[in-house]
Every structure is written in structure tokens, then in C-alpha cells.
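dumping this here so i dont lose it
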């Protein structure tokens, strides 16, 4: 048999190029994502050398989208989705309308028809699932209020695009020049719309009524078998099977189907194990998504249409961001939330390509539009990490200048803490919650800082003294009594965000004792450089405690080669 096939060549070539150029990008202090996109350009048909199969690359990339959305759904409950509906639904619809209008303006400037401009604007209005979620995950924002709003916003955008993709072919006779506006065509359009809405509603109802019972039950039964291999296979079968079934039977996108599959499974006690099983494949295929985008780009468009490319880039990055910021602030949300949503939506991706390709095949948009959409997507994805960093810095500077918190957090927080000699705990996640419980049981005075409003309210109902907001804010640390505190415990997992908290606390109280956590040696060094007295490395601490247990048992004579199974250690 031949040793080279299109599937194998695309998979191996894409991953190897992504690894090489991603490593180079990281060495140059750029996001690895830049290298992945350039790997796609190198493997594309517009550059010399190796050319990967574009169709196969797109299908492999779709696996990454499915697994990514499935993982997000595992941490995103139905209650979270409903809690942000008041801003996600009107906000997403208003932002789509405004971005579509700006895209229409570019289309008219280029001499296109009204219909071509409107479809082009729709292509620029929807953000990429993969880019948005990766940005939130890198900043540990998926489980925050800001992350919930961004994901809810994304779900609404996906639903709008699903409806558009279904309705556009049916509406084409009405939209083309000289098309008939006869009543039968209009009636068939409404019939198509009704069927599409009915299919989407049926899928959602099926997942919420049947799926939320059957899927956890199925994985519980597989887990009881004790086979790790079967459990891993079951998780992948659920994620991929439901995504494929949603697209084939209900006309729902792969991403949306996988998201709802993860959301109903998230109610199971096995959700954490399910998430861990999908991580390796998710990361690998998400890389192929960026490679597949780079393959589509013809670099000559930057020379051929420089002003049009800049105009498209400005709409995606500046126009959409400003619109989203204004909408979020109009709903009285904090500036930090508005900036996060603005940065999250300042890019376009997979749905833009699908919709653009469909419109061109239906003769609703000129061929030149594809290159402009791709150029705008590449530039916006490249600049998205920089936009996140710039807006985060802008938020911190605004808070330092004002010396006050955002109105929402300030209104929800109580008066300044009157404690002295207490501990300030930043972060009440899986680690922070255990620390808080242990300190409270010991009677140690404690103030908790947490940015998830629902967690804050739950802790207050349990009698904790809690402040809502970003622990790096000097004003919030002052409200927690940091100048009178004896210790600071930073339990958030992101070492770079934790370093900002440590730095702000050190400026307020130079003699404060500070302990933080990290997952890598580089993260630990960064925390020490910013003033942490001690940094706990999870793997190092685990290895030390396990080794100490073995040595202590050996010295006491309770652990010998002939003793059989060692006695069980008490639960922590």
C-alpha cells in the first residue's frame, strides 16, 4: 500500500509545521497561535513547497471545534446560560446588526450591491468559537461572570448564523437582481424559517429532557466497569456523536451540538474526568483549526487591496469592540466586563468562512469578498492576544486612577473590613475553597476576594466575609484590610494574574507574608520576582508528601516488603 495519503500527509505536515513555527513564535515572545497561522500559509496553495489538502484540513479542524465546545459545555450549566440571557441575547443581536451595517458600508464603497454588502457585513459580525474560548481559557475566565456573558453571547451568534445558513438558499430568488417577489417564494421562506426554528427547538428540548438523564447515566455505567479505555471512548463517542447527529438531523452546527452535549453532562459527577479525557485531542485538533485558516489566505490580497483590508480589519477590531463595549456598559455591567467582551469579539472565524463561501456559490457576493474576509480573519486572530493584553492594562490603569471599583461590584460589596491580623484569600475555586474551609474551621480571621458574583453570594449566605472583584485592584485590597492583614494567600491558578495581585498587595503592605500557587517553574519564578514569599508547585508538593509518607511508614516499621497492602491514609 502507498506510504503517503492525503489524510496522513495533511495531518503530519500540519502538525509538524505548526510545532516548528509555533516554537519559533514562542522564542520571539509571540503567541504560538501566530506560528500556527503561518504554518497554514506555508502549507497552503499560494506558497511554494508542501501543499496540504484543504478539505481534509477543514474536517480535522472541525474535530477541534467540537471537542473545545464540548469541554466548555462541561463547565457551563443551564443556569449559567439563563443567567446571562438578558444581556447576551439583545447584546449579540444589536452587535450583529451594527457590524452588518458597517460591512454593508464597505461593500457599497467597493461598488457591490446592497445584498452583497449586507451578507458581507454578516460575515464580519460573528466571532470565532475557537479563538474566543482559547483566549478565555488562557486567562482563566471561562468560569467567571465575564466568561459566562462572552460564551452566552457566542451561543446567540451561533444560533443566528445557523438560521442564516439555512434561510439564505431559500431567500436567494428574492435577493438576486430580477428575482421574483411572488407570494409562493415568500411563503416558502417563512415555512423554511418555521422548520428551522422547530428543529433547533426540538434538539434543545431533546437534550434538556432526555439527554440530561441518559448521558450521565450512560457514563456512570461505563465508569462502573472500571475500564479507563472504555470511559475515554464513551466520552469521545458522546461528544462527536451528538455533534454529528445535531448537524445531520436537526440542522444545528457541530459546535452548538457539542456545547449542549457537554452542558447536560456537566451535571454528572464525572464531568471533571470527562473534561480531562478530551484535553489532548482537543488541543491537537484546535491547532489544526488555525492551520486550516492560514491555508486559505492568498498573501497577494494585502498588496492588491490594502485599503479594503484595512477597512475590514478596522470594522472587526475597532468597530465591533466599541459597539460591544457600549452595549455592555448600557446594561450597567462593570468596565472590566465590557472590556473583556470587547476583546473577545474583536475577531472572526469559522462561521464567517462558511457563510462567505455559501454566499459566493449562490452568486450573492463577489469572489473578491472571500480574500477580504480571510485577510480580516488572519489579522484579527493575530492581533487578538495583543488586544486582550492592551484592554486588560487599560482596565487596570483606569482603576488605579479612579481609586474605586466598578459600580456593579462596589454596589454589591459591603463596607471596608474591620479585621486586623487576618488572612486575605484571593480566589475561591477548587483550591481556594479548601483553604477557606480549613481556616474557618480553625477560627482564623479571613477575608475572601472572588470575582464570580454567584460564588460571592453563596459564601455570604454561609457567613463568610467576601468581596467581589479583581484581587489585583488596589482599592479592593484596601477594602479587604490588606494593610492590617498578616498574610495573603493567592489561590488563583494563572501565575501571571496572581503576580499582579502579589505586586499590588506588596505596594500596600511591604511586610505582608505572601503564599501563591503555580503549575510550572517559570510561573514560580515570576511570582517570586513579584514578591511572593513562598510558591507552592502542585507537582512538587505532591511528590514530596507522597515520598514523606513512604519514608515515615518505613521508619515506624508499618511498611515492609511482606506487609502486603499499605494502610490507607486518612482523607485530607
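and the seq i came up w/
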Amino acid at each position: 500500500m502507498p506510504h503517503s495519503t492525503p489524510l496522513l500527509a495533511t495531518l503530519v505536515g500540519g502538525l509538524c509545521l505548526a510545532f516548528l513555527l509555533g516554537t519559533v513564535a514562542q522564542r520571539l515572545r509571540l503567541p504560538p497561535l501566530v506560528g500556527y497561522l503561518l504554518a497554514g500559509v506555508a502549507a497552503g496553495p499560494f506558497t511554494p513547497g508542501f501543499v496540504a489538502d484543504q478539505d481534509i484540513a477543514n474536517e480535522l479542524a472541525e474535530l477541534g471545534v467540537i471537542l473545545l465546545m464540548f469541554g466548555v459545555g462541561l463547565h457551563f450549566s443551564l443556569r449559567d446560560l439563563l443567567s446571562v440571557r438578558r444581556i447576551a441575547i439583545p447584546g449579540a443581536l444589536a452587535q450583529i446588526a451594527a457590524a452588518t451595517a458597517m460591512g454593508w458600508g464597505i461593500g457599497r464603497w467597493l461598488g457591490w450591491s446592497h445584498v452583497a454588502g449586507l451578507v458581507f457585513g454578516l460575515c464580519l459580525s460573528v466571532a470565532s468559537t475557537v479563538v474566543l474560548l482559547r483566549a478565555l481559557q488562557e486567562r482563566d475566565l471561562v468560569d467567571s461572570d465575564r466568561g459566562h456573558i462572552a460564551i452566552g453571547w457566542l451561543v446567540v451568534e451561533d444560533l443566528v448564523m445557523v438560521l442564516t445558513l439555512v434561510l439564505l438558499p431559500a431567500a436567494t430568488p428574492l435577493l438576486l437582481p430580477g428575482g421574483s417577489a411572488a407570494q409562493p417564494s415568500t411563503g416558502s421562506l417563512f415555512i423554511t424559517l418555521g422548520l428551522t426554528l422547530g428543529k433547533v427547538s426540538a434538539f434543545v428540548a431533546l437534550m434538556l429532557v432526555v439527554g440530561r438523564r441518559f448521558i450521565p447515566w450512560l457514563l456512570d455505567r461505563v465508569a462502573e466497569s472500571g475500564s479507563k479505555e472504555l470511559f475515554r471512548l464513551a466520552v469521545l463517542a458522546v461528544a462527536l456523536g451528538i455533534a454529528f447527529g445535531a448537524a445531520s438531523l436537526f440542522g444545528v452546527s457541530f459546535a452548538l451540538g457539542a456545547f449542549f452535549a457537554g452542558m447536560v453532562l456537566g451535571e454528572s459527577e464525572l464531568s471533571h474526568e470527562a473534561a480531562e479525557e478530551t484535553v489532548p485531542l482537543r488541543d491537537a485538533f484546535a491547532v489544526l483549526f488555525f492551520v486550516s485558516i492560514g491555508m486559505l489566505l492568498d498573501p497577494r490580497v494585502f498588496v492588491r487591496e490594502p485599503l479594503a483590508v484595512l477597512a475590514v480589519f478596522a470594522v472587526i477590531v475597532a468597530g465591533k469592540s466599541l459597539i460591544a463595549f457600549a452595549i455592555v456598559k448600557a446594561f450597567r455591567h462593570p468596565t472590566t466586563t465590557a472590556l473583556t467582551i470587547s476583546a473577545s469579539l474583536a475577531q472572526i472565524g469559522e462561521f464567517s468562512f462558511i457563510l462567505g463561501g455559501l454566499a459566493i456559490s449562490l452568486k450573492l457576493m463577489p469572489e473578491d469578498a472571500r480574500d477580504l474576509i480571510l485577510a480580516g480573519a488572519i489579522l484579527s486572530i493575530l492581533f487578538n492576544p495583543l488586544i486582550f493584553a492592551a484592554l486588560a492594562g487599560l482596565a487596570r490603569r483606569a482603576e488605579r486612577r479612579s481609586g474605586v471599583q466598578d459600580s456593579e461590584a462596589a454596589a454589591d460589596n459591603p463596607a471596608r473590613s474591620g479585621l486586623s491580623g487576618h488572612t486575605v484569600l484571593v480566589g475561591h475555586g477548587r483550591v481556594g475553597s479548601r483553604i477557606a474551609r480549613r481556616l474557618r474551621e480553625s477560627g482564623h480571621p479571613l477575608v475572601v476576594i472572588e470575582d464570580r458574583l454567584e460564588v460571592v453570594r453563596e459564601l455570604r449566605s454561609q457567613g463568610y466575609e467576601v468581596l467581589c472583584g479583581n484581587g489585583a485592584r488596589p482599592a479592593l485590597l484596601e477594602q479587604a484590610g490588606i494593610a492590617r492583614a498578616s498574610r495573603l494567600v493567592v489561590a488563583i491558578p494563572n501565575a501571571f494574574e496572581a503576580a499582579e495581585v502579589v505586586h499590588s498587595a506588596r505596594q500596600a503592605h511591604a511586610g505582608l507574608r505572601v503564599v501563591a500557587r503555580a503549575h510550572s517553574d517559570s510561573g514560580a519564578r515570576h511570582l517570586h520576582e513579584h514578591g511572593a514569599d513562598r510558591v507552592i508547585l502542585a507537582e512538587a508538593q505532591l511528590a514530596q508528601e507522597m515520598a514523606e509518607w513512604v519514608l515515615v511508614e518505613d521508619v515506624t516499621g508499618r511498611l515492609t516488603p511482606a506487609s502486603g497492602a499499605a494502610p490507607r491514609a486518612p482523607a485530607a
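The longest strand covers residues 513-518.
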